[in-house]
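WARN retry 2 of 3 for item q-0093 after timeout on previous attempt; input resubmitted unchanged.
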Amino acid sequence: MADLVVPDLLRTGVASEGRHEWLAALPAQIADAGRRWGLTVGEPFQPGGKTAWVAPATRAGDPTPLVLKVGFAHFEARDEAVGLRLWAGDGAVRVVAAEQDDETVVLLLERCVPGTPLNTLPEPDQDPIMAAVLRRLWRDPPAGHGLRPLSSMCDSWADSFERALTEGRVDLDPGLARAGVDLFRSLPRSATRSALIGTDLHAGNVLAAERDPWLAIDPKPYVGDPTYDVLQHLLNCHRLHREPGALADRLAGLCGLDPERLRLWLFARCVVETPHWPDLAAVARLVAPR
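OK item q-0093 returned
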């Protein structure tokens, strides 16, 4: 069996989720994956994620750089392996091996080398690269794909927002809040196209690679409106708070999308995010439908 390095998990960021039982079992799961796949596993990437332990790895007798990812199978991200297999390396990293149960997803993935994240570039330079990666990922899902519809995620988020609204934790005009959450429920159902989408693609999750200039990592795959898929990049841009409408129009043009629909999605997403991301209330007001 290959040597295995299991570092202090408190340094990875996983502990912040408070899933203590899952955390307690994590070293054994890492060791089991190392034995099962014949891995030498290095120190985890820093600063680490909130729901996954991720580290570089190699297999015995094979210098190919890989990544071992052991993650909590939370609601949004449970189908990562399914989506990556459907993309089959076209625009996203490849899956080498995967195992999953009700609580844990263990993935052995292609490692991007050099792995420089797209967010090291100036924001305007990120936009065309992000658009090109997104457009590669959007494709018709095959029959029997097993992925959930985007509407299921949006309904869950909308339910959470409405609880916050009832509890007085939303700093928005009630009419604006209701318009946003209603749109967040209806937009997934009014789409004219349904595609395989990643839902969490931002410039920190697009890495430079050798076999392809840029590859997506860490998707949370669903099937639904590709317009939604632009939102995470928009929300991660500093420009959003200065010129949200113009930024949405720019990305819509780069991605071949309807700019008005993207503005509606941006408004709705900003509204439902306000309990956890209060600064988005100002953006919601700026892009609210007139």
